[in-house]
Amino acid sequence: MPVEPLVCAATATRVSSVLNRDVKQFGKQHLFDGSEDTCWNSDQGTSQWVTLDFPRPVKVSQLHIQFQGGFSSRLCTLEGCRTGEELVKISELYPQDCHAMQISFQVEETVLDKLKITFGSSTDFFGRVVVYHLGVLGERL
After folding, report:
1. H runs (alpha helix) in 8-124
2. What pLDDT is recorded for position 105?
3. What is the dihedral of CA 110, 111, 117, 120, to 10 degrees?
4. Distances from the Cα of 121 to the Cαs of 35, 73, 93, 118, in angstroms?
5. Full-prediction pTM beyond 0.85?
6. pLDDT per position as a tens digit, 14-43
7. Could you tell me how far CA 27 lies from the centroid of its own chain?
8. Which CATH number is 4-140 given?
9. 3-class DSSP state of 20
10. Helical segments of the chain, H only
11. Phi and psi at residue 12, in whole multiples of 5°?
12. All residues at 6 or more sequence positions from 134 whose CB lies less than 8 Å from its CB, including other chains
């Protein structure tokens, strides 16, 4: 199976919040821009999330993520579904609280049109999450 980045310009992305509603500096676009100088920074809260609506079905196999140390998630829950269906839990990931790129969280391969990544149990006292890079890899169908 070829493994390729699945997020493209046609992928609709939503996030739970943006720090101080400063979308220009901390918005969702920074999750995928490839710059080490930008990031998505959530506002405070107990559970933050990112949803991706792919333009066509995909089979996700890996997740790459880079948090800011001290603002990471101890638990990432992945949910997915096909168009018109309810989200179902795919897997749980346990990232490290560090700034390094955490590569190749293997994901149970599932065909889906929508992916939701919930960041629960933030290492930040206020529940903020800071993500410099989010890579979703797999196969376009």
Report:
1. 23-26
2. 67
3. -30
4. 26, 6, 12, 10
5. yes
6. 999 999 999 999 999 999 999 999 999 999
7. 13
8. 2.60.120.260
9. helix
10. 23-26
11. -80, 125
12. 7, 31, 32, 40, 50, 63, 64, 65, 66, 117
**Which tokens belong to 73?**
């998630």
Would you state the structure tokens that stand for residue 118, as one six-digit string? 């919930």
pLDDT at 95: 92
Write down the pLDDT at residue 110: 82
Take residue 33 and report the two structure tokens written for it.
């821009």
Amino acid letter, residue 9: A
For 78-137, write each residue's pLDDT tens digit.
999 999 999 999 989 899 999 888 866 677 778 999 999 999 889 999 999 999 999 999
Check: CB of residue 129 under 8 Å from CB of residue 122: yes
Question: Rounded distance, CA 13 to CA 10, Å?
Answer: 9
